[in-house]
Amino acid sequence: MSNPSDKRRKFVTFQMPSKRPLETAPVPRLTPREEWERKEAVPAIPASPEDDARIRRMSRRSLLWAGVTLAGTLGGLWAFNRNETTAGGETRGVYVPLVDGTKAPFRKALGFNEVVARNLFFSPTHMAQEFPLSAAITPRNNYHGDTPQIDTDFWSLTIEGEKNQTEPRAIALADIKTLPEVSQTTELKCIEGWSAITNWTGVRFYDFLRKFPPPEGTKYIGMFSEPEGQEDTWYYIGLDIESAMHPQALLAYAMNGETLDAEHGAPLRLIMPHKYGIKNIKLITRMTYTNERPADYWYDRGYDWYAGL
């Protein structure tokens, strides 16, 4: 007779059968494309010979029209861009006239941009953003070609057309530094697409114009960089008097706490954060007050004269 204590307990494990109906068993998910094809798609109908012929005719016609359109476009561009040089050496547009060296439609668009910029965006109370000194960096040397080198000890600025002055007169940097010194950290924006936040120190153009005033009613200022013996680096800009008198327009002689170097316009340059860099002329040697819009280097090469931001 066996001892009950010797009997080992037996454990039985089992799994309840699934009560899910077979019709609800999981099935592979269809992609949106497969669902659309299942619901909407219909078998493709083979094209008839008549359809094939019609498609071929349409393809030939489309190719022909594409060729005509391309030829017309190229011909129009040729006519638009065609210029000729007259016996006197003047260049003129054959079919589309040139206005100040630029095709008339483009020059008209640039003139419209100037009207908008001057009347809607410019104001003597509208200030460009100023930044902390810690954000200042050194901008690139944007001279196109050799950087002009001069002896700054012998530099002077010639002013033409000054009020009550019958002859041009030359002033030294020391004369300019008698004006109140100001410093600002603003962004110099180049029309080529780059920009640099830089600290500039100098005098306000407004204060300069009060000490060396133009005649009453003067409308424009012409500024020139003409280092002697370096004619290939000469540069010139034209300014409206309102822009020159903006509180942030500076005649700068220092950058980031250091005296200007040759690469950045020593000994005196213009800083105007409310205009593109093409107006921020470097190494200024001559200035003239006038009532006629002065010549401008990049305007003569097809750009906007005003160049406002």
General description of the model:
The chain has 309 residues and is of the alpha+beta class. It has 2 domains: 44 residues, no CATH class; 177 residues, Sulfite Oxidase, Chain A, domain 2 (Alpha-Beta Complex). 24% of the residues lie in helices and 21% in strands. The strands form 4 sheets. Strands 6-5-14-9-10 form a 5-stranded mixed β-sheet. The chain is elongated. The chain starts with 31 loop residues before the first helix and ends in a 19-residue tail after the last strand. The mean pLDDT is 84.
Give the topology.
Blueprint: H1 32-39, H2 49-81, E1 83-85, E2 91-93, E3 98-99, E4 102-103, H3 104-121, E5 157-160, E6 169-171, H4 173-176, E7 181-189, E8 195-204, H5 205-211, E9 220-225, E10 235-240, H6 241-244, E11 250-255, E12 258-259, E13 269-271, E14 286-290
Parallel strand pairs: 5-14
Antiparallel strand pairs: 1-2, 3-4, 5-6, 7-8, 8-11, 9-10, 9-14, 11-12, 11-13
Summarize the structure.
This protein is 24% helix and 21% strand.
Notable characteristics:
alpha+beta, about 300 residues, Sulfite Oxidase, Chain A, domain 2, five-stranded mixed sheet
How would you sum up the major sheet? 5 strands, mixed
Using the 3D structure, state the CATH architecture of the largest domain: Alpha-Beta Complex
Integer count of domains = 2
Low-confidence stretches: none
Distance between the termini: 111 Å
CATH superfamily of the largest domain: Oxidoreductase, molybdopterin-binding domain
The coarse overall form would be elongated
Could you tell me the strand content as a percent range? 15-25%
Rg, Å, rounded: 37 Å
Level of helix content?
10-25%
Instruction: Assign the structural class, choosing from mainly alpha, mainly beta, alpha/beta, alpha+beta, or little secondary structure.
Output: alpha+beta
Order of helices and strands, N to C? HHEEEEHEEHEEHEEHEEEE
CATH class bucket of the largest domain? Alpha Beta
Number of distinct helices? 6
CATH fold label of the largest domain: Sulfite Oxidase, Chain A, domain 2
